[in-house]
Design goal:
Blueprint lengths: L10 H4 L4 H5 L11 E2 L21 E3 L4 E3 L1 E3 L2 E8 L22 E3 L25 E7 L8 E7 L15 H7 L2 E5 L5 H4 L11 H16 L5 E11 L1 H11 L9 E5 L7 H8 L14 H9 L5 H10 L2 H10 L16 H7 L7 E6 L3 H8 L9 H12 L3 H7 L8 H26 L4 E6 L43 H20 L19 E5 L7 E4 H4 L2 H10 L1
Parallel strand pairs: 3-6, 8-9, 8-10, 10-11, 11-12, 12-13, 13-14
Antiparallel strand pairs: 1-6, 2-3, 4-5, 5-7, 7-9, 14-15
Helix pairs in contact: 3-16, 12-15, 13-14, 13-15
Amino acid sequence: MNLRQPLRRTPPARSGPGLRAALAGTAVVGLLLAATAVPGHAAGTTADRGGAGANPTIVRTGDGWLRGTAGPGYRTFEGIPYAAPPVGALRWRSPRPHPSWAGVRDATAPGPMCPQNPGAESPASLDEDCLHLNVTVPDRRRATTGLPVMVWIHGGSGTSGAGAWYDPAFLAQRGDVVAVTINYRLGALAQLRHPALPDSGHLAYADQQAALRWVQREIRAFGGDPGNVTLFGESEGGTAVCAQLVSPSAAGLFHRAVMQSGACWPSQLEHEFHSGSAGAPADLETNDDTGGLAFAAALGCHPPRTAATCLRDVGVQELLSAQTTARSLGFTATSAVLPVPTRVAVRTGQVNRVPTIIGVNEEEGTLFTYFLNDALGAPVTEESYVARVREIFGSAAEEVLTRYPVEAYASPSAALAATQTDHFWVCPSVTAAGELAAVSPVRFYQFADPAPPQSLAIPLPPALAGPTHGAELPYLRMTDPSFGLPAAFTPQQKALSTLMVDYWTGYAQRGDPNHRGTPHWPRYDPAEANALRLAPGPRGVAPIDIRSAHQCGFWDEVAEAS
Protein backbone atom coordinates (compact mmCIF):
# COMPACT_ATOMS: atom_id res chain seq x y z
CA MET A 1 0.00 0.00 0.00
CA ASN A 2 1.22 3.47 -0.75
CA LEU A 3 -0.60 6.44 0.77
CA ARG A 4 2.34 8.80 0.60
CA GLN A 5 2.46 11.88 -1.56
CA PRO A 6 5.52 11.36 -3.74
CA LEU A 7 7.41 14.49 -4.69
CA ARG A 8 9.49 14.83 -7.82
CA ARG A 9 11.20 17.37 -10.02
CA THR A 10 8.31 17.77 -12.49
CA PRO A 11 5.10 18.13 -10.48
CA PRO A 12 2.56 17.27 -13.22
CA ALA A 13 4.19 13.89 -13.78
CA ARG A 14 4.96 13.21 -10.13
CA SER A 15 1.77 13.84 -8.19
CA GLY A 16 1.17 11.05 -5.75
CA PRO A 17 -1.50 8.50 -4.92
CA GLY A 18 -4.23 9.50 -2.51
CA LEU A 19 -6.44 7.32 -0.38
CA ARG A 20 -8.82 6.29 -3.14
CA ALA A 21 -6.05 5.11 -5.47
CA ALA A 22 -4.23 3.29 -2.71
CA LEU A 23 -7.32 1.44 -1.52
CA ALA A 24 -9.22 0.83 -4.76
CA GLY A 25 -9.22 -2.65 -6.22
CA THR A 26 -7.71 -4.40 -3.18
CA ALA A 27 -9.12 -6.33 -0.26
CA VAL A 28 -9.32 -2.96 1.50
CA VAL A 29 -11.97 -1.56 -0.89
CA GLY A 30 -11.62 -3.06 -3.57
CA LEU A 31 3.77 8.57 -24.62
CA LEU A 32 5.58 6.40 -26.29
CA LEU A 33 8.32 9.09 -26.49
CA ALA A 34 9.22 10.47 -29.92
CA ALA A 35 12.57 9.51 -31.44
CA THR A 36 14.61 12.26 -33.02
CA ALA A 37 17.97 12.16 -34.72
CA VAL A 38 20.90 13.91 -33.11
CA PRO A 39 23.94 14.28 -35.36
CA GLY A 40 27.51 13.80 -34.30
CA HIS A 41 27.22 10.65 -32.16
CA ALA A 42 28.70 7.71 -33.98
CA ALA A 43 28.83 4.24 -32.48
CA GLY A 44 31.81 3.66 -30.22
CA THR A 45 32.06 7.13 -28.69
CA THR A 46 32.50 7.43 -24.94
CA ALA A 47 28.98 8.80 -24.68
CA ASP A 48 27.43 5.46 -25.60
CA ARG A 49 29.26 3.84 -22.70
CA GLY A 50 27.94 6.30 -20.15
CA GLY A 51 31.34 7.97 -19.87
CA ALA A 52 32.37 11.61 -19.86
CA GLY A 53 32.26 12.07 -23.62
CA ALA A 54 31.15 15.11 -25.58
CA ASN A 55 27.60 14.63 -24.33
CA PRO A 56 27.26 12.30 -21.32
CA THR A 57 23.48 12.53 -21.55
CA ILE A 58 23.60 10.51 -24.79
CA VAL A 59 23.78 6.75 -24.22
CA ARG A 60 23.60 3.85 -26.65
CA THR A 61 21.69 0.74 -25.60
CA GLY A 62 21.08 -2.43 -27.53
CA ASP A 63 17.69 -1.06 -28.62
CA GLY A 64 18.97 2.34 -29.71
CA TRP A 65 20.30 5.68 -28.55
CA LEU A 66 18.82 7.63 -25.62
CA ARG A 67 19.02 11.27 -24.67
CA GLY A 68 18.67 11.94 -20.94
CA THR A 69 18.95 14.90 -18.60
CA ALA A 70 21.88 16.24 -16.59
CA GLY A 71 21.17 17.29 -13.00
CA PRO A 72 23.42 18.53 -10.21
CA GLY A 73 25.69 15.56 -9.63
CA TYR A 74 23.66 12.99 -11.56
CA ARG A 75 22.07 12.13 -14.90
CA THR A 76 18.67 10.60 -15.52
CA PHE A 77 17.24 8.62 -18.41
CA GLU A 78 13.50 8.23 -18.10
CA GLY A 79 10.68 6.49 -19.90
CA ILE A 80 12.89 3.72 -21.31
CA PRO A 81 10.79 0.84 -22.65
CA TYR A 82 11.88 -2.55 -21.35
CA ALA A 83 9.12 -4.62 -22.98
CA ALA A 84 6.62 -4.29 -25.79
CA PRO A 85 3.38 -2.47 -24.98
CA PRO A 86 1.03 -5.09 -23.48
CA VAL A 87 -1.90 -4.02 -25.64
CA GLY A 88 -4.31 -5.76 -27.98
CA ALA A 89 -3.34 -9.41 -28.35
CA LEU A 90 -0.53 -8.89 -25.78
CA ARG A 91 -2.92 -7.89 -23.00
CA TRP A 92 -2.71 -10.55 -20.24
CA ARG A 93 0.31 -12.11 -21.91
CA SER A 94 3.82 -12.41 -20.55
CA PRO A 95 6.01 -9.46 -21.55
CA ARG A 96 7.52 -9.54 -25.03
CA PRO A 97 10.70 -7.80 -26.29
CA HIS A 98 10.43 -4.17 -27.30
CA PRO A 99 11.45 -3.33 -30.87
CA SER A 100 14.52 -1.18 -31.41
CA TRP A 101 14.28 2.37 -32.67
CA ALA A 102 16.17 4.63 -35.07
CA GLY A 103 17.77 7.92 -34.14
CA VAL A 104 17.98 9.15 -30.56
CA ARG A 105 14.98 8.52 -28.35
CA ASP A 106 14.00 11.28 -25.95
CA ALA A 107 14.44 10.01 -22.40
CA THR A 108 13.96 13.28 -20.53
CA ALA A 109 10.54 12.50 -19.03
CA PRO A 110 8.98 9.38 -17.55
CA GLY A 111 6.54 7.26 -19.47
CA PRO A 112 2.89 7.01 -18.45
CA MET A 113 1.79 5.26 -15.30
CA CYS A 114 0.25 1.85 -15.78
CA PRO A 115 -3.57 1.96 -15.78
CA GLN A 116 -4.95 2.91 -12.38
CA ASN A 117 -7.84 4.80 -10.84
CA PRO A 118 -7.42 8.43 -9.76
CA GLY A 119 -6.35 9.43 -6.27
CA ALA A 120 -6.62 12.60 -4.23
CA GLU A 121 -3.49 14.07 -5.85
CA SER A 122 -3.00 11.96 -8.96
CA PRO A 123 -4.95 11.63 -12.18
CA ALA A 124 -6.08 8.32 -13.52
CA SER A 125 -3.99 6.57 -16.13
CA LEU A 126 -5.57 4.68 -18.99
CA ASP A 127 -2.39 4.03 -20.98
CA GLU A 128 -1.42 0.37 -21.25
CA ASP A 129 1.83 1.28 -23.01
CA CYS A 130 3.48 1.69 -19.63
CA LEU A 131 6.28 -0.85 -19.30
CA HIS A 132 9.05 1.71 -18.87
CA LEU A 133 11.86 2.24 -16.42
CA ASN A 134 14.06 5.14 -15.31
CA VAL A 135 17.80 5.13 -14.68
CA THR A 136 19.67 7.57 -12.42
CA VAL A 137 23.46 7.68 -12.79
CA PRO A 138 25.73 9.50 -10.34
CA ASP A 139 28.63 11.64 -11.47
CA ARG A 140 31.48 9.20 -11.20
CA ARG A 141 33.84 9.69 -8.29
CA ARG A 142 35.61 6.38 -7.96
CA ALA A 143 34.95 4.47 -11.16
CA THR A 144 33.79 4.96 -14.72
CA THR A 145 32.19 1.52 -14.97
CA GLY A 146 31.12 -1.32 -12.75
CA LEU A 147 28.95 0.60 -10.32
CA PRO A 148 26.50 -1.36 -8.14
CA VAL A 149 22.92 -1.31 -9.36
CA MET A 150 19.83 -0.85 -7.18
CA VAL A 151 16.44 -1.67 -8.73
CA TRP A 152 13.40 -0.29 -6.90
CA ILE A 153 9.94 -1.91 -6.98
CA HIS A 154 7.26 0.56 -5.90
CA GLY A 155 4.37 -0.17 -3.56
CA GLY A 156 0.71 0.71 -3.99
CA SER A 157 -1.30 -2.43 -3.12
CA GLY A 158 -0.72 -3.71 -6.64
CA THR A 159 -3.28 -1.21 -7.95
CA SER A 160 -1.45 2.14 -7.95
CA GLY A 161 2.00 3.66 -8.18
CA ALA A 162 4.78 4.29 -10.67
CA GLY A 163 8.54 4.17 -10.68
CA ALA A 164 8.77 7.88 -11.42
CA TRP A 165 7.07 8.70 -8.12
CA TYR A 166 10.37 7.88 -6.41
CA ASP A 167 13.50 9.92 -6.91
CA PRO A 168 16.70 8.01 -6.12
CA ALA A 169 19.13 10.82 -7.04
CA PHE A 170 20.44 11.31 -3.50
CA LEU A 171 20.75 7.56 -2.99
CA ALA A 172 22.66 7.24 -6.26
CA GLN A 173 24.99 10.15 -5.54
CA ARG A 174 25.86 9.35 -1.94
CA GLY A 175 26.19 5.62 -2.50
CA ASP A 176 27.79 5.72 -5.97
CA VAL A 177 25.15 3.36 -7.31
CA VAL A 178 23.14 3.27 -10.51
CA ALA A 179 19.48 3.40 -9.46
CA VAL A 180 16.61 2.01 -11.53
CA THR A 181 12.90 2.52 -10.87
CA ILE A 182 10.31 0.57 -12.83
CA ASN A 183 6.66 0.44 -13.79
CA TYR A 184 4.79 -2.86 -13.91
CA ARG A 185 1.21 -3.84 -14.67
CA LEU A 186 -1.35 -3.24 -11.93
CA GLY A 187 -4.82 -4.28 -10.87
CA ALA A 188 -6.89 -6.57 -13.08
CA LEU A 189 -4.42 -6.20 -15.95
CA ALA A 190 -1.80 -7.91 -13.79
CA GLN A 191 -3.69 -9.98 -11.24
CA LEU A 192 -6.78 -11.35 -12.98
CA ARG A 193 -6.78 -15.14 -13.01
CA HIS A 194 -8.86 -16.73 -15.75
CA PRO A 195 -8.55 -20.15 -17.45
CA ALA A 196 -8.87 -18.53 -20.90
CA LEU A 197 -5.75 -16.44 -20.19
CA PRO A 198 -2.89 -18.92 -19.62
CA ASP A 199 -0.33 -16.24 -18.68
CA SER A 200 -2.63 -14.43 -16.25
CA GLY A 201 -2.22 -14.10 -12.50
CA HIS A 202 1.41 -13.17 -11.88
CA LEU A 203 2.03 -10.67 -14.67
CA ALA A 204 3.38 -8.00 -12.32
CA TYR A 205 6.14 -10.39 -11.30
CA ALA A 206 6.75 -11.33 -14.95
CA ASP A 207 7.09 -7.64 -15.83
CA GLN A 208 9.56 -7.11 -13.00
CA GLN A 209 11.68 -9.95 -14.32
CA ALA A 210 11.58 -8.46 -17.81
CA ALA A 211 12.91 -5.21 -16.32
CA LEU A 212 15.64 -7.14 -14.51
CA ARG A 213 16.60 -8.86 -17.76
CA TRP A 214 16.83 -5.42 -19.37
CA VAL A 215 19.20 -4.43 -16.58
CA GLN A 216 21.34 -7.48 -17.30
CA ARG A 217 21.55 -6.57 -21.00
CA GLU A 218 21.81 -2.82 -20.88
CA ILE A 219 23.02 -1.42 -17.56
CA ARG A 220 26.68 -1.42 -18.62
CA ALA A 221 25.83 1.44 -20.98
CA PHE A 222 25.03 3.51 -17.87
CA GLY A 223 28.15 2.44 -15.96
CA GLY A 224 26.40 -0.26 -13.94
CA ASP A 225 27.58 -3.76 -13.11
CA PRO A 226 25.00 -6.42 -14.12
CA GLY A 227 26.78 -8.82 -11.78
CA ASN A 228 25.99 -6.67 -8.73
CA VAL A 229 22.27 -5.91 -8.66
CA THR A 230 20.29 -5.26 -5.48
CA LEU A 231 16.51 -5.60 -5.73
CA PHE A 232 14.62 -3.55 -3.16
CA GLY A 233 11.03 -2.54 -2.60
CA GLU A 234 8.46 -1.43 -0.04
CA SER A 235 4.99 -2.74 0.83
CA GLU A 236 3.65 -4.42 -2.32
CA GLY A 237 7.15 -3.89 -3.70
CA GLY A 238 8.60 -5.77 -0.73
CA THR A 239 6.19 -8.64 -1.32
CA ALA A 240 7.31 -8.65 -4.96
CA VAL A 241 10.95 -8.91 -3.86
CA CYS A 242 10.05 -12.04 -1.90
CA ALA A 243 8.28 -13.46 -4.95
CA GLN A 244 11.44 -12.92 -7.00
CA LEU A 245 13.44 -14.65 -4.28
CA VAL A 246 11.44 -17.84 -4.85
CA SER A 247 10.98 -17.60 -8.62
CA PRO A 248 13.31 -19.92 -10.56
CA SER A 249 13.11 -17.65 -13.61
CA ALA A 250 14.54 -14.77 -11.54
CA ALA A 251 17.70 -16.73 -10.68
CA GLY A 252 20.80 -14.74 -11.56
CA LEU A 253 18.87 -11.53 -12.29
CA PHE A 254 19.77 -9.99 -8.90
CA HIS A 255 22.32 -10.69 -6.22
CA ARG A 256 20.95 -9.06 -3.05
CA ALA A 257 17.47 -8.30 -1.82
CA VAL A 258 15.80 -5.81 0.53
CA MET A 259 12.18 -6.27 1.62
CA GLN A 260 10.74 -3.19 3.35
CA SER A 261 7.38 -3.81 5.05
CA GLY A 262 6.35 -6.47 2.59
CA ALA A 263 4.87 -9.81 3.62
CA CYS A 264 6.31 -12.87 1.90
CA TRP A 265 2.88 -14.40 1.36
CA PRO A 266 -0.72 -13.20 1.45
CA SER A 267 -2.64 -13.61 4.68
CA GLN A 268 -6.27 -14.62 4.76
CA LEU A 269 -6.62 -13.00 8.18
CA GLU A 270 -5.18 -9.78 6.75
CA HIS A 271 -7.86 -9.96 4.06
CA GLU A 272 -10.49 -10.41 6.76
CA PHE A 273 -9.13 -7.47 8.75
CA HIS A 274 -9.35 -5.21 5.72
CA SER A 275 -12.64 -6.47 4.33
CA GLY A 276 -14.50 -7.14 7.55
CA SER A 277 -15.46 -10.62 6.42
CA ALA A 278 -14.17 -13.27 8.78
CA GLY A 279 -14.27 -16.85 7.64
CA ALA A 280 -12.28 -20.00 7.12
CA PRO A 281 -8.70 -19.40 5.99
CA ALA A 282 -8.23 -19.63 2.24
CA ASP A 283 -6.00 -22.30 0.77
CA LEU A 284 -3.01 -20.17 -0.19
CA GLU A 285 -1.39 -23.10 -1.97
CA THR A 286 -4.16 -23.69 -4.54
CA ASN A 287 -5.11 -21.75 -7.65
CA ASP A 288 -8.66 -20.41 -7.62
CA ASP A 289 -10.41 -19.23 -10.79
CA THR A 290 -13.72 -18.42 -9.10
CA GLY A 291 -13.19 -14.69 -8.64
CA GLY A 292 -11.71 -14.23 -12.10
CA LEU A 293 -14.60 -16.03 -13.76
CA ALA A 294 -17.09 -13.84 -11.87
CA PHE A 295 -15.14 -10.71 -12.81
CA ALA A 296 -15.19 -11.65 -16.50
CA ALA A 297 -18.87 -12.55 -16.37
CA ALA A 298 -19.69 -9.15 -14.88
CA LEU A 299 -18.04 -7.60 -17.93
CA GLY A 300 -20.12 -9.77 -20.25
CA CYS A 301 -17.23 -12.15 -21.00
CA HIS A 302 -18.74 -15.39 -19.80
CA PRO A 303 -18.43 -18.22 -22.37
CA PRO A 304 -14.94 -19.70 -21.89
CA ARG A 305 -14.29 -20.12 -25.63
CA THR A 306 -14.75 -16.40 -26.30
CA ALA A 307 -13.68 -14.95 -22.93
CA ALA A 308 -10.08 -14.13 -23.93
CA THR A 309 -11.09 -12.14 -27.02
CA CYS A 310 -13.90 -10.47 -25.12
CA LEU A 311 -11.68 -9.43 -22.21
CA ARG A 312 -9.05 -8.03 -24.57
CA ASP A 313 -11.73 -5.87 -26.17
CA VAL A 314 -12.93 -4.34 -22.90
CA GLY A 315 -11.93 -0.69 -22.49
CA VAL A 316 -9.38 0.22 -19.84
CA GLN A 317 -11.78 2.51 -17.99
CA GLU A 318 -14.37 -0.24 -17.82
CA LEU A 319 -11.78 -2.63 -16.39
CA LEU A 320 -10.70 -0.09 -13.77
CA SER A 321 -14.29 0.58 -12.76
CA ALA A 322 -15.03 -3.13 -12.48
CA GLN A 323 -12.01 -3.89 -10.31
CA THR A 324 -13.06 -1.33 -7.70
CA THR A 325 -16.19 -3.35 -6.91
CA ALA A 326 -14.91 -6.87 -7.60
CA ARG A 327 -14.74 -9.10 -4.53
CA SER A 328 -11.92 -11.07 -6.11
CA LEU A 329 -9.83 -11.28 -9.27
CA GLY A 330 -9.09 -14.92 -8.55
CA PHE A 331 -6.05 -16.22 -6.70
CA THR A 332 -2.90 -17.51 -8.38
CA ALA A 333 -0.77 -19.64 -6.09
CA THR A 334 1.38 -21.14 -8.84
CA SER A 335 2.31 -20.14 -12.37
CA ALA A 336 5.24 -20.29 -14.77
CA VAL A 337 6.78 -17.47 -12.72
CA LEU A 338 6.05 -19.12 -9.35
CA PRO A 339 5.82 -22.89 -9.89
CA VAL A 340 5.80 -23.44 -6.11
CA PRO A 341 3.60 -21.33 -3.78
CA THR A 342 5.67 -18.64 -2.11
CA ARG A 343 4.93 -19.85 1.40
CA VAL A 344 5.97 -23.41 0.57
CA ALA A 345 9.10 -22.29 -1.28
CA VAL A 346 10.31 -20.14 1.61
CA ARG A 347 9.53 -22.81 4.19
CA THR A 348 11.37 -25.51 2.26
CA GLY A 349 14.35 -23.44 1.13
CA GLN A 350 13.42 -23.44 -2.58
CA VAL A 351 14.73 -19.90 -3.00
CA ASN A 352 17.33 -17.94 -4.91
CA ARG A 353 20.07 -17.91 -2.32
CA VAL A 354 21.11 -14.28 -2.09
CA PRO A 355 21.81 -12.12 0.98
CA THR A 356 18.59 -10.48 2.15
CA ILE A 357 17.54 -7.60 4.37
CA ILE A 358 14.03 -7.79 5.85
CA GLY A 359 12.53 -4.87 7.70
CA VAL A 360 9.35 -3.67 9.38
CA ASN A 361 8.15 -0.48 10.98
CA GLU A 362 7.33 -0.50 14.68
CA GLU A 363 3.68 0.53 14.22
CA GLU A 364 2.80 -0.74 10.74
CA GLY A 365 -0.87 -1.22 11.55
CA THR A 366 -1.61 2.36 12.64
CA LEU A 367 -2.01 3.58 9.08
CA PHE A 368 -4.47 0.88 8.13
CA THR A 369 -6.48 1.07 11.32
CA TYR A 370 -6.92 4.80 10.93
CA PHE A 371 -7.90 4.82 7.28
CA LEU A 372 -10.06 1.73 7.56
CA ASN A 373 -11.91 2.89 10.66
CA ASP A 374 -11.57 6.45 11.99
CA ALA A 375 -10.97 8.16 8.67
CA LEU A 376 -13.88 6.34 7.06
CA GLY A 377 -16.39 7.41 9.64
CA ALA A 378 -16.21 4.47 12.05
CA PRO A 379 -14.13 5.52 15.08
CA VAL A 380 -12.85 2.62 17.14
CA THR A 381 -14.47 2.53 20.56
CA GLU A 382 -13.75 0.09 23.34
CA GLU A 383 -16.87 -1.84 22.38
CA SER A 384 -16.08 -1.90 18.67
CA TYR A 385 -12.49 -2.93 19.41
CA VAL A 386 -13.71 -6.00 21.27
CA ALA A 387 -16.25 -6.78 18.56
CA ARG A 388 -13.66 -6.37 15.80
CA VAL A 389 -11.16 -8.66 17.49
CA ARG A 390 -13.84 -11.30 17.97
CA GLU A 391 -14.87 -10.95 14.34
CA ILE A 392 -11.33 -11.33 13.03
CA PHE A 393 -9.76 -13.86 15.36
CA GLY A 394 -12.67 -16.13 16.22
CA SER A 395 -11.75 -18.73 18.82
CA ALA A 396 -8.46 -16.94 19.58
CA ALA A 397 -10.19 -13.62 20.28
CA GLU A 398 -10.36 -13.83 24.06
CA GLU A 399 -6.66 -14.57 24.32
CA VAL A 400 -5.92 -11.70 21.91
CA LEU A 401 -7.96 -9.36 24.13
CA THR A 402 -6.00 -10.58 27.15
CA ARG A 403 -2.68 -10.02 25.40
CA TYR A 404 -3.76 -6.63 24.00
CA PRO A 405 -6.01 -5.09 26.67
CA VAL A 406 -7.48 -1.79 25.55
CA GLU A 407 -6.40 -0.06 28.78
CA ALA A 408 -2.74 -0.71 27.89
CA TYR A 409 -2.95 1.59 24.88
CA ALA A 410 -3.55 5.26 24.27
CA SER A 411 -6.86 4.50 22.54
CA PRO A 412 -8.94 1.57 21.28
CA SER A 413 -7.68 2.41 17.80
CA ALA A 414 -4.09 2.03 19.00
CA ALA A 415 -4.93 -1.33 20.57
CA LEU A 416 -6.46 -2.58 17.33
CA ALA A 417 -3.47 -1.27 15.38
CA ALA A 418 -1.11 -3.19 17.68
CA THR A 419 -2.85 -6.47 16.91
CA GLN A 420 -2.49 -5.81 13.20
CA THR A 421 1.12 -4.65 13.46
CA ASP A 422 2.18 -7.81 15.26
CA HIS A 423 0.02 -10.45 13.61
CA PHE A 424 -0.23 -9.22 10.03
CA TRP A 425 3.14 -7.51 9.55
CA VAL A 426 5.95 -8.13 12.02
CA CYS A 427 5.57 -11.78 12.99
CA PRO A 428 5.13 -13.13 9.44
CA SER A 429 8.29 -11.24 8.52
CA VAL A 430 10.08 -12.78 11.51
CA THR A 431 8.98 -16.22 10.34
CA ALA A 432 10.20 -15.56 6.81
CA ALA A 433 13.51 -14.21 8.12
CA GLY A 434 14.10 -17.36 10.15
CA GLU A 435 13.34 -19.63 7.21
CA LEU A 436 15.45 -17.65 4.75
CA ALA A 437 18.32 -17.46 7.25
CA ALA A 438 18.63 -21.23 7.03
CA VAL A 439 19.97 -20.92 3.47
CA SER A 440 21.25 -17.34 3.04
CA PRO A 441 22.58 -14.45 5.13
CA VAL A 442 19.72 -12.32 6.50
CA ARG A 443 19.66 -9.05 8.38
CA PHE A 444 16.55 -7.66 10.07
CA TYR A 445 15.68 -4.07 10.99
CA GLN A 446 12.83 -2.30 12.75
CA PHE A 447 12.29 1.37 11.90
CA ALA A 448 11.15 3.04 15.11
CA ASP A 449 11.31 6.84 14.93
CA PRO A 450 8.44 7.79 17.27
CA ALA A 451 7.78 11.07 15.47
CA PRO A 452 8.82 10.82 11.82
CA PRO A 453 8.01 13.68 9.43
CA GLN A 454 4.70 13.03 7.77
CA SER A 455 4.61 12.73 4.02
CA LEU A 456 1.06 11.47 3.66
CA ALA A 457 -1.28 13.09 1.20
CA ILE A 458 -3.87 12.91 4.01
CA PRO A 459 -1.91 13.35 7.27
CA LEU A 460 -2.56 11.19 10.27
CA PRO A 461 -3.65 12.88 13.50
CA PRO A 462 -0.68 13.58 15.81
CA ALA A 463 -1.61 10.79 18.21
CA LEU A 464 -1.27 8.23 15.41
CA ALA A 465 1.65 9.70 13.46
CA GLY A 466 4.35 7.30 14.57
CA PRO A 467 6.53 4.78 12.71
CA THR A 468 3.68 3.39 10.66
CA HIS A 469 3.63 1.76 7.25
CA GLY A 470 5.83 3.65 4.79
CA ALA A 471 7.29 6.03 7.40
CA GLU A 472 10.86 4.95 6.59
CA LEU A 473 10.71 6.08 2.95
CA PRO A 474 11.67 9.75 3.50
CA TYR A 475 14.75 8.54 5.37
CA LEU A 476 16.04 6.94 2.19
CA ARG A 477 15.74 10.39 0.52
CA MET A 478 13.65 9.09 -2.37
CA THR A 479 10.67 11.43 -2.04
CA ASP A 480 12.09 14.94 -1.63
CA PRO A 481 12.00 17.41 -4.53
CA SER A 482 15.39 18.92 -3.75
CA PHE A 483 17.03 15.51 -3.20
CA GLY A 484 17.74 16.73 0.30
CA LEU A 485 15.86 16.47 3.56
CA PRO A 486 12.24 16.96 4.50
CA ALA A 487 11.95 20.39 6.09
CA ALA A 488 10.78 18.80 9.34
CA PHE A 489 13.90 16.65 9.86
CA THR A 490 15.65 17.37 13.14
CA PRO A 491 19.46 17.03 13.31
CA GLN A 492 19.07 13.61 14.91
CA GLN A 493 16.64 12.49 12.21
CA LYS A 494 19.03 13.78 9.56
CA ALA A 495 21.79 11.65 11.10
CA LEU A 496 19.50 8.60 11.09
CA SER A 497 18.60 9.23 7.46
CA THR A 498 22.24 9.43 6.45
CA LEU A 499 22.99 6.24 8.37
CA MET A 500 20.15 4.38 6.64
CA VAL A 501 21.25 5.54 3.19
CA ASP A 502 24.78 4.41 4.00
CA TYR A 503 23.51 1.03 5.24
CA TRP A 504 21.42 0.44 2.11
CA THR A 505 24.04 1.56 -0.39
CA GLY A 506 26.88 -0.11 1.52
CA TYR A 507 24.88 -3.31 1.28
CA ALA A 508 24.55 -2.79 -2.47
CA GLN A 509 28.28 -2.10 -2.73
CA ARG A 510 29.62 -4.99 -0.69
CA GLY A 511 26.79 -7.24 0.44
CA ASP A 512 27.37 -5.97 3.99
CA PRO A 513 25.74 -2.79 5.34
CA ASN A 514 28.42 -2.32 7.98
CA HIS A 515 31.31 0.06 7.52
CA ARG A 516 33.62 2.09 9.72
CA GLY A 517 31.85 4.50 12.05
CA THR A 518 28.40 2.91 11.95
CA PRO A 519 26.72 0.80 14.65
CA HIS A 520 27.24 -2.86 13.90
CA TRP A 521 24.33 -4.60 12.19
CA PRO A 522 24.73 -8.35 12.83
CA ARG A 523 23.36 -11.18 10.76
CA TYR A 524 19.96 -12.40 11.88
CA ASP A 525 19.97 -15.44 14.16
CA PRO A 526 16.50 -17.01 14.50
CA ALA A 527 17.38 -18.25 17.98
CA GLU A 528 18.08 -14.71 19.16
CA ALA A 529 15.65 -12.86 16.85
CA ASN A 530 18.24 -10.10 16.77
CA ALA A 531 17.05 -7.14 14.76
CA LEU A 532 18.56 -3.66 14.56
CA ARG A 533 16.29 -0.91 15.85
CA LEU A 534 16.56 2.27 13.76
CA ALA A 535 15.52 5.42 15.64
CA PRO A 536 17.05 8.89 16.04
CA GLY A 537 19.17 9.86 19.01
CA PRO A 538 22.33 8.57 20.68
CA ARG A 539 20.67 5.33 21.79
CA GLY A 540 18.26 5.03 18.91
CA VAL A 541 20.21 2.50 16.88
CA ALA A 542 20.46 -0.61 19.02
CA PRO A 543 19.75 -4.36 19.03
CA ILE A 544 16.23 -5.56 19.72
CA ASP A 545 14.65 -8.99 20.23
CA ILE A 546 12.03 -8.60 17.53
CA ARG A 547 10.05 -11.74 18.48
CA SER A 548 9.60 -10.71 22.09
CA ALA A 549 8.84 -7.09 21.25
CA HIS A 550 5.86 -8.17 19.14
CA GLN A 551 4.67 -11.31 20.96
CA CYS A 552 5.46 -13.55 17.99
CA GLY A 553 5.46 -16.69 20.11
CA PHE A 554 1.79 -16.07 20.86
CA TRP A 555 0.96 -15.37 17.22
CA ASP A 556 2.74 -18.55 16.17
CA GLU A 557 0.36 -20.44 18.45
CA VAL A 558 -2.62 -18.65 16.89
CA ALA A 559 -1.40 -19.58 13.41
CA GLU A 560 -0.89 -23.23 14.37
CA ALA A 561 -4.38 -23.43 15.84
CA SER A 562 -6.10 -21.91 12.79
